[in-house]
Amino acid sequence: MLVEEEDLEFSYFNCCGDEDLYPFGCPKCQRLMVFCYECDTLYSDLTLISGSRDGVNHFKPQEPIFSCPGCGFAFEYHFMKDHHYKVEHAEWIGSGYGHLLRHWTDTR
Hints:
globular; 4-stranded antiparallel sheet; single chain; two-stranded antiparallel ribbon; 108 residues; mainly beta
């Protein structure tokens, strides 16, 4: 089962007040991130839940929208149309970010 927007606990992500969130992972280094496609905020560090619009290409679809801060992988402008960036629930939880999901229970 893939992590979708409705699976996220929105209270952790506060960027624009009308958050539309896309959870995904880097295909090169597996870094997990969340992108608010309402205001173009990239949450690239889910440990600190730090979001930034710096480094996000807002207007040039012929260029990458941003690069992975972990490995530099360039995400195509319309990357959200390609489902290979989606992450399985088990991977999300195994990476230590289960608390960012709405119905997660720590079973450790």
